Amino acid sequence: MNSFTDNLRKIEPYVPGEQSKEKDIVKINANENPYPPSPKAVEALKSFNTDSLRFYPNANATVLKEALAEYYGVEVENVFVGNGSDDVLALAFQSFFCSDKPIVYPDITYSFYPVWCELFNIPFKTYPLDKDFRINVEDYREQNGGVVIPNPNAPTSLCEGEQFIRTLLSYNTDSVVIVDEAYVDFGGYSSVALTKEYENLLVCGTFSKSRSLAGMRIGFAIGSKTLISVLEAVKNSYNSYTVDSLSIAMGIASLEDDGYFKSTINKVIATRSRVTNELRALGFEVLDSSSNFILVTHSDYSMKEYFEFLKSKKVFIRYFSLPRIDKYVRITIGTDGEMDVFLAETKRFLEEK
Amino acid sequence: MNSFTDNLRKIEPYVPGEQSKEKDIVKINANENPYPPSPKAVEALKSFNTDSLRFYPNANATVLKEALAEYYGVEVENVFVGNGSDDVLALAFQSFFCSDKPIVYPDITYSFYPVWCELFNIPFKTYPLDKDFRINVEDYREQNGGVVIPNPNAPTSLCEGEQFIRTLLSYNTDSVVIVDEAYVDFGGYSSVALTKEYENLLVCGTFSKSRSLAGMRIGFAIGSKTLISVLEAVKNSYNSYTVDSLSIAMGIASLEDDGYFKSTINKVIATRSRVTNELRALGFEVLDSSSNFILVTHSDYSMKEYFEFLKSKKVFIRYFSLPRIDKYVRITIGTDGEMDVFLAETKRFLEEK
Questions:
Q1: Helix segments in chain A, DSSP class H
Q2: How far apart are CA A248 and CA B312, in angstroms?
Q3: CA distance A342 to A34
Q4: Burial class (CB in 10 A: 0-12, 13-18, 19+), B201
Q5: 3-state secondary structure of A166
Q6: What is the pLDDT of residue B1?
Q7: Model confidence band, residue A21 (pLDDT cutoffs 50, 70, 90)
Q8: Does residue B38 sit at the A interface (CB-CB below 8 Å)?
């Protein structure tokens, strides 16, 4: 009897979110952008010199880093890029959370944080959000092995401002603080400027939401040269070429098309505002979102039933069967047309139930 | 004084190989394919529905796995895909090498193996190649935490056959055996068929060499459902979406264009044969390559000087300043035109020195 299975990694399989293959659906369950990528990014793809794909990408993705550095007003040495922000965050966990003390994060937050802690054997401790789903910064005064918060938080959609982040940093000078800004472009406060003051602050971002490039896997981080150089060393010990040549080209083109970027952001924000108001008029409670999604509940209805009802009408939103948020649903902001279908089916749900 | 730096990962930065930005060079130093990707893969890129890039890729890259399963005559559950074969190998090290016993591999081999061992704290032990640069299978009888060999080996270019692999597997039933077949398509023996007999065998491959898609980052592995399911669990605990949507589409198109694939392979093999013969006629010793590169030495000349001379003539080959192979250079097989330039400069070197 073979025993090679004894030394295989024992790990609970993480199951990625449901992706329906059906057509003619309203897919507002994965926080994807309803608008296509920048036409300049598309042009970068169509005009790409495909013969050059036989070469490895530049291992440092230098040209993409340069474009990000210019965009954010930092130096190239302050920029890291990876294969989506999950890759960047996973590398950051490996790079910065090497203490025996537990890292800390909110109890309702991005579901991948505990998964990475298990994968890398990082001890962790969570602090509950308060009754309004806000992070209580006073919780984060204790000694810890590191701090990670998404800002805006997910799936709450709520964003903390500069004073909160400065207080958090003042309490945590001896560990690395990661602020995960996947959703910040939809009207949140960004801590990027604070990376010049706080050497232990890493800010992570992604091209998957606000830049409509989820399919291309581009994530990045901005921080001090100290932090970025450790991230680079760990990344280069894992996989030298994480960002492919087309992603580099499309990422740069997207950054160069700020007009398109701002116009799609503004459309999402306007639709969010309209949908929030309409849902509130229907008796829903809707948190004040700074993201491209809203967290919603209704005191008279089961949100699980609401989710199932919409699913039967081919409108896919997200329901979390988890403590504290099982009375809520998360709804990504789609196009106005998609949200009209969503609102019509929502009204039907309220009438029928 | 801040002490956050105390808990940063201490790791020796791995420096990826030199990539010259100069133009009009003969770049035969990175084992890249001299021919462009399949026209069908290029067409898949040009005709891609770019609007869909706003969506995340399929987390399981199912369609690419299906194409690989059909190509290799296995089931979809026997196939894993990743962001280049370095990603696949790094995940395999994390997934399968969890023993306290050292893993084992040859002392001259792919330079990333010790890097991953350091990153994941995996103990390791190496066995020297014999005087002809071959792997001695009898070395691999001892109890170990796992085995990894590239076949063909790099940078030796030498390939072992079925009997060698079967013997290796017969000695190692209690640990996972990884055969890294990055170069196998250039005339080597592939162990893929043996994965049906040996549940502890994982075979890794890449689209970067034989399929001219280094720029797109596509790697894969074939093995038993037991091994693949553990790899999937670890990968999904790290990053759900490692292979982007365009890589999936181009990978499938490349697999469907077997005529182009075979014709470029055959061209590389024919050029390799010609260059090998010409170098031998000039007094060089050239190992019998089953790869898209050759390992070369000459008893009368310093290979370091040869490397430097060619570099000054804008012909970039690879020299390793490492014990045992510092008397050799590694030369990637380019187009016939590139190899003519290389051979002309080689003759000039012999005349001038």
A1: 39-46, 62-72, 85-96, 112-119, 162-171, 225-236, 245-256, 258-281, 303-312, 336-352
A2: 31
A3: 14
A4: buried
A5: helix
A6: 46
A7: low
A8: no
| Average model confidence (pLDDT) across chain B | 95
Which residues in chain B touch residue A97, judged by CB atoms under 8 angstroms apart?
A: 7
Sorted by sequence, the CB contacts under 8 Å of residue A21 that are 6+ apart come out as none
Question: How distant, in Å, are the alpha carbons of A171, A173, A177, A179, A310 from that of A166?
Answer: 9, 11, 11, 12, 41
Under an 8 A CB cutoff, do A54 and B200 touch? no
* 0.90 surpassed by pTM: yes
Beta bridge pairs of residue B329? B296, B319
Residue whose C-alpha is closest to residue B178's, from B269, B112, B246:
B112
Residues whose CB falls within 8 Å of the CB of residue A282, separated by 6 or more in sequence, listed in order: A298, A346, A347, A350
Alpha-helix runs per DSSP H in B146-212 = 162-171
Separation between Cα atoms, residue A12 and residue A17, nearest integer Å: 15
Question: Is A174 in CB contact (< 8 Å) with chain B?
Answer: yes
Structure tokens that stand for A240 in this block? 């030298």
Tokens standing for residue B75: 């089931």
* B210-235 pLDDT, tens digit each: 999 999 999 999 999 999 999 999 99
Question: How far A251 CA lies from chain B's nearest CA (Å)?
Answer: 12
Tell me the pLDDT band of A11, cut-offs 50, 70 and 90. Answer: confident
Nearest partner of A57 among A41, A89, A81, judged by Cα: A81
Number of Cβ atoms within 10 Å of the Cβ of B136: 11
Cβ A94–B54 below 8 Å, yes or no? no
Question: Are residues B176 and A97, on separate chains, in Cβ contact within 8 Å?
Answer: no
Q: How far is A299 from chain B (nearest CA, A)?
A: 32
Contacts of A247 in chain B (CB under 8 A): 244
Distance separating alpha carbons of residues B77 and B222, to the nearest angstrom = 9
Q: For A201-245, how does the pLDDT look when each residue is reduced to its tens digit (9 = 90+)?
A: 999 999 999 999 999 999 999 999 999 999 999 999 999 899 999
CB contact under 8 A, B51 and A32: no
